[in-house]
Amino acid sequence: MKFSLVLILSLALFSFVNAQVPEEWTVVIWNPDNTALVDILNDGLQDALPEAIAAGQLGAGRWSLAKVNSITEQAEGNGGDDYLFNIEITNGQNSTRFSMLIENDGEENQLLRWEVL
Questions:
Q1: Where do the structural domains in the chain lie, given as residue ranges?
Q2: Looking at domain 24-116, which CATH architecture does it have?
């Protein structure tokens, strides 16, 4: 009887905690006419590309967006969203896959991390 009561209380607490922390990422369809999404992507590129060049992960040059492969979004508890962009960038001669995680709090965008794939 005590075991059953503890199990039920544990499951109830676990369910409540899980409901409070958003964990699911949802796929976002890329639309170049969505100015909010384009602004988030451009802000991320503006911060990430110089960092990647300075870190020696990208060669010097003028890197730009070539293709958006995928975007996923996760809602945060504070009303903002995190966006994970998987893209291809090019400098005219070379291209590479690149990933950026960007936080949008509704007012500004902050690059959380980037990675050359």
A1: 24-116
A2: Roll (3.10)
Q: What single-letter DSSP state applies at residue 32?
A: T
pLDDT digits (tens, 9 = 90+) for 70-100: 999 998 766 789 999 999 999 988 999 999 9
**In the structure encoding, which two tokens stand for residue 8, read together?**
């039920």
Measured CA to CA, the distance from residue 69 to residue 99 in angstroms comes to 10
Strand ranges of the sheet holding 95-104, from the earlier edge strand across to the other edge: 26-28, 64-75, 81-90, 95-104, 109-116
- The sign one gets for the Cα dihedral 98, 65, 92, 50 is negative
Distances (CA, A) of 23 to 55, 68, 100, 105: 31, 23, 18, 17
CA-CA distance, 8 to 14, in Å (whole number)? 10
Largest CA distance in the chain: 71
Give the pTM: 0.77
